[in-house]
Fold this protein.
Amino acid sequence: MTAHLLALPKVLYIEDNADARTLIARILARDFLVLEAGDPIGGIELATDTHPDLILLDINLPQMSGREVAARLTTLLPETVLVALSAESDEDARQKALAAGFAGFIAKPIEIDTFADEIFEFLHGKRETATNLARSQQNFAAEVAARLEEKVRELTRIIERNTFLNEQNRQMIALLQRRQHLLEASLRVGQIITSVLDLDELLPLAAQVISEEYRFTSAAIHLGADPAPVNGLAFPLRVKDNTLGVLTVESASSEPLSADDQTALQSLANQVAIAINNALLLRDLQKANAELLRNKTFQAIATATGEAIHWVGNKAAPIPASAARVRQDLLEMAQIFQVLLAEKDKTGHRYWPAAQEIFSTLAALPAAEPPENPLPLGLESTLEDLSVIEQSATTILTIKEDLIGPARLRRETDLDLAQLIRQTVFEMALPEGALALSLPDNLPPVRGDARQLAQVFNNLIKNAWEAMQGQSRPPRIWVSLSAEEKQIICHVSDNGPGIPPEILDKIWVAFFTTKGDRGGTGLGLMACMEIVRQMNGEISVQSTVGQGTNFTVTLPTHL
C-alpha cells in the first residue's frame, strides 16, 4: 500500500479554503498523492521540501496572489508544472496566469468528472499559451510592481509603526525603570528613617539619604506649620490634618520632575512625616515620662519621709545636748575669766575690750543657775561636743542630698566623662597612691547632668575608700573608662573586704548600709542607681569576699 502511494504522482494544492482543499484531495486521491498547504509561504516551503510533480494554485490567496507564488516557484522549481485554479474565469485572468508561468488555467467551479483527467493531461505535456504573451507579461509585471509598491508602503507603515512602538516601549521601559528606582529608593529611605526615633538625628539623616538615593543636589526638611519660603520643589509633610513642615529638593537636571516622580516624592514625604511625627511623639513621651519619674521620685521621697524622720531624728538627737554643754562651758569660762581678772586690772588689761563685750553679752543672757556638781572645765570636752554637732549636721545634709539629688531638675549637657571623673577625684583629696586612673582622652561624650553624675562617682569612690579603712593591706582603688558599641563603660574597683553574697542585692535598698556605726545613710547607692537609670544607663556590682568589689556603670554615648 505504501509503495503504491509513493509510486503515484505528487500533487501539491495551495488553497486557503479548507473545504476546497478537502474536495480536491478526494477527487484526486485515487490517482495522485495529494499534499496540501493553507497559505502561500507554507506552500512555497512545502514545495521546495517535497518537489511535487504538479502544483495547483488558487489565484486569490492571502499575503501573496497565486500569480506571485507562481513567479517564485518557477524560479525555485523550474521543472514543476503549475496549474491555476480561479473563480475569475474571464480571459484577462487566464492571460495573466499564463504570463506568470502557469502551464494551464482551470476555472472554478471545476468539473468533478473530468478534473483528474485534466491534471493527467498537464502532467503529460499539455500547455496553454497566452494569445498576446508580451502584453500579458507586461500586465503581470505592472500588477507585480503595484503589489510591490503596496507592500513597500505597507512595510513602510509597519516600520514607522514599529519605530513608534519601539519609542513608546523605550519610554515605557525608561518609565518603569524610573518607577522601579523610585520604589527601591523609597523602600531604602523608609527602612532607614523609620528605624530612627531621635528627632535631632532623624532630620539631617533623612535629608542626606533622600539626596543620595534620588540623586538630588540637595534636600532639606523644614519644620513648622508655616515654614519660610524655600527654593526648589516643596512637598508638604502632613500627618492627617496636621502639617509638620515641608520637604524641599533641588535637582541639577533642567528637566522638570514627571508626575510619577512628584507622586513618588509626595509618598516619600508622607513616610518622612510619619517618622517625624513618631519622633515628636517619642520626645513628648520621654518628657512626660521624665516628669512622671520626677513626680514618682518625689512620691517615693514622701513615702520615705517617715523612715527618714526617724533616721534623721537619731542623727540629730546628740545636737541639743552637745550644744547645751558647749553653751554651759562658754558661760563657765566667761565667769572664770571675770573672776580671774582682778578688779583693779580690769580697765588696764590688754584684753579688757574683748572682756567687756563678753560681760555685756553675758549680762543680757538669762541668769544661769550654777550646776550642783560642776564638771571640770576642759577644752577637749568642748571640742568633742562640737565634733558631734558637726558630724550630725553633715549626716543630715548627706541624707537630704541623697534623697533630693535624683529628683532635682536636670541640666543636661554633653559631658567629657574622663574630665568629670578627674575633677571629682581631685576634689575628694584622697591620699597619693591610693587611686589609679585609666581614663583615655577623646572618648565620645555622654549626655547628662554634671552635678548628678559627679555625685554617682563620688559615692562609689567614697564607699570603696571607707570600706577599706582598717584593713592590713594598703587600700587601692582603680577607676577605668572604655568605649564599646555606642556606650561608655566605667569600672570602679577596690581591693577591700568585699560584700557578702547574701547582702549583695540589698545594697540598693533605701536605708540599708554596711557601714554600721561609721555613719552611712544607706541612701547613696540608691541615689546612684536612680541617677544612672535616668540617663538610660545601667549600674551593677560584682564582689568577692576577701578580694574586693567592682561597680560597673554603663552610659550611652551622645554623638
Notes: DSSP finds 15 helices and 15 strands in the chain.
